[in-house]
Amino acid sequence: MNYIKELNAFYDWLETNSLPPSAINLWHALMNINNKAGWIPEFAVAKSVIEIKTGLKKDAYYNARNVLKQKGRIDFKERGTRAATFRIISFDSSEKPTSNQISENNLSEKPTRTPTSTPISAQTSSTTSTRNINKLNKTKRNETNTTAADRVNYFDSYMLCFKGQPSPIQIQEINYFIDQEGIEEEAVCIAFKKAAEAGAKYSYARSILNNWVSKGIKTVQDVEEENKAYEQSKKSFSNRRGVVRQEKLPDWYQEPQQAQVVPLPGINPNETYEEKRARLEKMQKQFQKSGS
């Protein structure tokens, strides 16, 4: 089994098959365990190990496991008190077709009939009905591809932004934001991108998500509207800083008049340095004489 090919095939498969985040998380954990085991056909994993790797509690783990089995991506067997065994169904292997493929095969099959047992009008009606059903299914598949092609997975986005896999606690937190707080998975990925662009780690993205929860921001459209409002407020603040504020003075205010310098008697305001020195020496002698 080729790890990279399976990952690429898995995300291609997700474009037409929806999975809850917990099931995607579990699939990644089982792939990691099987990779370390050397891609053996069947491997045993204890529930406690799964909980550590995924952060999923008992009920969430069982639900995710059942979803993956129903979708034909894994198979498992309970063994009582012993650890359950798992088998990952590779995208390269010739497994039984999914329910969608089975329904398509059944619809495209032409029923066997004898020319004499069915009227021509009934045959024409049956053929037309089958064609209409096939056309309807094809239209639905195209619509699914169009809407699911843009789908973003938070696990993949986390690895791209933070260069590593999320820890079990982080996975539990992210699942809480999506499942309990109702934040769209694509919006969660935007928070990861904002943190990465700021050169920060997951804790910064968690702060962004908590802030969005307090503001009721849940969708990508909500995020875009908040960004637009922030840019407008920042532009308005920048414009205000460039304006010089002028206060209107009251009517009773008067400008202070400049004080006039009145020269002291006996002192020439235009005297030179030598004249000033001679005057000071004379004053000093008079002071000494009067003191004696």
TrEMBL record:
Pfam families listed in its UniProt record:
DnaB_2
Enumerate the PANTHER family for this protein.
Answer: DNA REPLICATION PROTEIN, PHAGE REPLICATION PROTEIN-RELATED
Q: Which residues form the DnaB/C C-terminal domain?
A: 162-226
Name it: DnaD domain protein
Family to which this protein belongs: Belongs to the DnaB/DnaD family.
Where exactly are the transmembrane stretches of this chain?
none
Domain of life, source organism: Bacteria
Q: Where is this region: Disordered?
A: 95-130
What is the taxonomic lineage of the source species? Bacteria, Bacillati, Bacillota, Bacilli, Bacillales
Kindly give the InterPro entries that the UniProt entry links to this protein: DnaB/C_C, DnaD, DnaD-like_sf
Bias kind Polar residues: ranges:
96-130
